[in-house]
Design brief:
Blueprint lengths: L3 H15 L4 E4 L10 E13 L4 E13 L10 H15 L5 E3 L2 E3 L3 E7 L2 E13 L26
Parallel strand pairs: 1-2
Antiparallel strand pairs: 2-3, 3-7, 4-5, 6-7
Helix pairs in contact: 1-2
């Protein structure tokens, strides 16, 4: 089954290619982080049964885009939206996300903004193999066939 880290690595590769001069933080955003920068965080994951052997996985990853700020903690709206529009176009390209041995395409991209931060949430939906149940009992290694005579009581 495709790991969340593999999807995050695919997103990170796009960020580094498009914005090589910006820091990308994963898992932890330091208190004094660089600006402009990106912060990757996994969001919800939904797994739905499709067949006995296949599941559908819907995974969301958010890219938090932190812009430069001025003396009064203001940012340029146009510059921040230019970044979100560039990322949206990149994630929606067919097969853009190289995740492990797969090439995924974002099925949905949602953009929101709060002051100097914009969130780009990428949703990928893909099918994967259903995980096998663990073997809880040892397998039978030897089977003996034979017939036993029935025992009858004689009086």
């Amino acid at each position: 089954m495709l790991k969340i880290k593999e999807i995050m690595d695919g997103i990170n590769a796009i960020l580094v290619r498009l914005y090589p001069d910006r820091a990308v933080y994963v898992d932890v955003l330091p208190e004094q982080f660089e600006r402009p920068s990106f912060f990757l965080r996994p969001e919800g994951r939904k797994i739905t049964s499709r067949t006995a052997a296949v599941v559908e996985v819907e995974q969301m990853i958010t890219v938090q885009c932190a812009d430069e700020v001025g003396d009064r903690y203001e940012t340029q709206t146009a510059r921040l939206y230019d970044v979100t529009e560039t990322l949206t176009a990149a994630f929606l390209q067919r097969g853009a996300l190289h995740c492990g041995d797969r090439h995924l395409t974002a099925d949905r991209v949602d953009v929101s903004r709060s002051l100097d931060i914009a969130d780009v949430t990428i949703t990928v939906i893909y099918e994967d193999d259903r995980p096998a149940a663990p073997i809880t009992q040892p397998l039978i290694t030897d089977v003996a066939f034979g017939a036993q005579p029935s025992q009858t009581k004689e009086e």
